[in-house]
Design goal:
This protein is mainly α. The chain has one domain. It has 11 helices and 2 strands. It has a two-stranded antiparallel sheet. Helix 1 packs antiparallel against helix 3, helix 4 crosses helix 8 and helix 8 packs parallel to helix 11.
Length: about 180
């Protein structure tokens, strides 16, 4: 609810005379977006494992808080199972080897902060992509297709590099809103 009030104050800080005629529609759109994001964070917690993420995720900043405390490598196993992604591809996303994932899970290792945050971001992207493309399978297929908006690169390649998740997220947002991408 806190985010809604911040957005409401931001909207009120703009030219209220211009917004008055579309005020209800605009607030409705904002409220729906917040509900979608909150629902996605709830689903993300369930998918990665409520036993590892004890409290609700309220924003992407919570990723850093949870990651700093250390999260079990078992969330990688949950990610792989829920999104039907191979261990090899997941290892590529995290810039590590597949045997390293195997050892981390086997030894019940707690992930370092950067790996945890990256996995949270990729899992959130997969949830978003699966919603927009209406299935994990469709989203995974799209990730492997060259994309004009990315200079002909496959989106999956960008997930391995710093800032790549954000760029792919932007493209999915454009697709969701009907912008050619």
């Amino acid at each position: 609810m806190r985010a809604f009030f911040l957005i409401k104050r931001f909207v009120n800080a703009t030219n209220i005379v211009y917004l008055r005629s579309i005020n209800k529609i605009y607030y409705h759109m904002i409220e729906g977006k917040i509900e979608n994001t909150t629902e996605r964070y709830r689903r993300l917690r369930i998918i990665l494992g409520e036993e590892y993420i004890k409290k609700d995720i309220e924003s992407s900043f919570d990723y850093i808080i949870y990651a700093s405390k250390g999260i079990s490598a078992d969330i990688i196993k949950n990610f792989i199972k829920n999104f039907d992604v191979s261990q090899e591809i997941t290892a590529n996303f995290l810039n590590i080897s597949s045997p390293t994932i195997y050892r981390w899970i086997k030894n019940k290792k707690k992930l370092e902060r950067n790996y945890s945050v990256k996995l949270f971001e990729i899992a959130e992207l997969f949830l978003y992509g699966s919603d927009v493309f209406e299935s994990n399978e469709n989203f995974t297929k799209w990730l492997k297709l060259p994309n004009t908006a990315l200079g002909g690169m496959e989106p999956i390649v960008l997930l391995e590099i710093p800032g790549g998740v954000s760029k792919v997220n932007d493209i999915i947002g454009r697709i969701e809103h009907g912008v050619y991408s």
